[in-house]
Design brief:
The protein is mostly helical and 492 residues long. The chain is 65% helix and 5% strand. It has a 5-stranded mixed beta sheet, sandwiched between helices. Helix 4 (81-113) packs parallel to helix 14 and helix 10 (290-310) packs across helix 15. The radius of gyration is 36 Å and the shape is elongated. The relative contact order is 0.10. The model is unreliable at 1-29 (pLDDT under 50). Residues 1-29 are annotated as: Disordered.
Length: 492
């Protein structure tokens, strides 16, 4: 061998020695990005199944070699004492965890209902009376009767009655329409008391049902209005009518002369005392709507949780061929496509039951589809991120998360937040609450002033979920690699 060949061989050896550590470091420094496509939900779950099958096969072979048959015994046998202690220890831990979950998570929903009766005064209702009227001023008998009824012990704490001097009907209705008040009871003119007194004194026929009106909108909150607002308004109407019949009318009639009273015998003014005429400005006539605006929203949360499981196999096949960055982008895009198509099916279901989507806008079906899509994307993205973490750390936590997420979303959504403890104001930031408000605008044509906030919160959830998804994928892959590596070492 020549010196030049020797020198060349030495150089090659040196290059190999230098290159080998570099390759070794490169092969053993698996980045989080690389692990994203190696450790997916599907591959990890099926690796666990394969490990279980291999372990079972090894145990069978070992027992066959030792020619031993498994010895089974009763649960209370002395031979089972050690396993029995282990069983009870694990059983107690599981029961304590379930108890803790029930006490912590279910308390959220129960807490939203606790002492609601003491907070009904937070539901403000306008009480518009004549200028100068007060509870002690008998110069305005109609307005005085309204104020006395609202201040009675039976009615005072049913709603937040808010007295105000006379203003025109349009302003009052517009205030309720803008959701500044949950309803209004108002006199129709600034001299209704004078009109009533003159009709009695002159013996004139007079339509007493036009003196006081009431206005509310069931569409603002179908459950809250029907449970708290409407019954209280009806009770106020009854209380007002009783005061007019038992106190105001006898007092007014006692001031009439015999001739004036005689003229009243042939007209209806004497027998028809003033009553409050209530009007529901946005009635709910189709009770099928309850499905999409309430129960359907709960189903959306559950549906988006299960779609994560159904697409594990497809995602695994994509992970086997895509680069890590491409795989992450694929997961983001495919999730949005899933929500778009699933929400279309959900919207078609509601259309099949002839729900009218065109109360607020023409082409309401498309608007409903987009609201459903944004809702599914907002809650589905959160479900997917948390499912990745829970599946890696402790799979049973996924069920706990689903219940917790549903409870947090609905506890104060389908009833006025004002009647719940102040803690539940977090509901305004939850996706289901904002979707619920959007659904009501679309289906009932309620006030549109909060559309920007509602859409903005749903979009914010979607953006946040997509920002967190790559980190959740990397955490899942890193944690599962560590767990499987540790399990492999312990088996040897």
């Amino acid at each position: 061998m020549t010196s030049s060949e020797t020198s060349l061989g030495n150089d090659a050896t040196d290059d190999a020695n230098q290159k080998e550590p570099q390759e070794f470091r490169q092969e053993n420094s698996d980045s989080l990005m690389r692990m994203v496509t190696q450790y997916t939900e599907y591959s990890v779950s099926h690796v666990n199944e394969a490990n279980m099958n291999n372990q079972e096969r090894e145990n069978d072979e070992k027992m066959a070699k030792e020619q031993q048959e498994p010895v089974k015994t009763g649960f209370l046998s002395k031979k089972y004492a050690q396993q029995r202690r282990k069983f009870f220890k694990q059983y107690i831990i599981i029961i304590v965890v379930l108890w803790t979950f029930i006490l912590c998570v279910f308390s959220i929903y129960w807490g939203s209902l606790y002492n609601r009766g003491t907070r009904l005064v937070n539901l403000k209702v306008l009480l518009v009376v004549e200028d100068g009227a007060s509870i002690d001023n008998s110069d305005y008998p109609v307005s005085q009767a309204l104020l006395r009824a609202a201040e009675s012990p039976q009615l005072k704490r049913l709603l937040g009655w808010t007295p105000r001097n006379y203003t025109d009907d349009d302003w009052v209705i517009n205030e309720v329409r803008k959701q500044k008040y949950w309803g209004a009871i108002y006199v129709t003119s600034n001299n209704v008391s004078q009109q009533l007194v003159q009709a009695l004194e002159n013996g004139q026929d007079f339509n007493t049902s036009t003196l006081v009106n009431g206005y509310y909108e069931s569409g603002r909150d179908p459950i809250g209005v029907s449970t708290y607002v409407e019954p209280s308004l009806l009770k106020l109407a009854i209380g007002f009518s009783d005061i007019m019949q038992q106190e105001v009318y006898p007092s007014l009639l006692s001031q009439l002369t015999s001739e004036q009273f005689a003229r009243l015998q042939n007209i209806t003014t004497l027998s028809s005392t003033p009553e409050i005429t209530l009007k529901d400005g946005v009635p709910m006539t189709d009770y099928t709507i309850i499905a999409p605006v309430q129960v359907g929203l709960i189903y959306i949360v559950i549906l988006t949780f299960f779609q994560v499981m159904w697409f594990q196999r497809i995602n695994q096949e994509a992970a086997e061929t895509l680069k890590p960055v491409s795989y992450i982008i694929y997961r983001m895009v495919i999730a949005q496509v899933n929500y778009l198509l699933i929400s279309l099916g959900y919207s078609c279901l509601n259309a099949a039951f002839q729900i009218n989507f065109n109360n607020a806008w023409k082409g309401g079906f498309g608007v409903y589809w987009m609201i459903s899509y944004l809702t599914m994307s907002a809650v589905g993205g959160a479900n997917e991120n948390i499912a990745l973490i829970c599946f890696a750390v402790l799979p049973p936590l996924m069920g706990f998360w689903l219940v917790l997420f549903v409870v947090c979303n609905i506890s104060a959504t389908f009833s006025p937040v004002e009647v719940c403890p102040k803690l539940f104001r977090f509901t305004y930031a939850m996706p289901i609450k904002n979707s619920y408000e959007l659904m009501k605008v679309l289906l009932f044509d309620t006030y549109r002033g909060h559309l920007g906030r509602n859409f903005g919160i749903l979009v914010a959830w979607i953006v946040l979920n997509n920002i967190l998804l790559p980190f959740c994928l990397m955490f899942f892959s890193w944690y599962m690699k560590r767990k499987l590596t540790k399990a492999a070492k312990s088996s040897h």
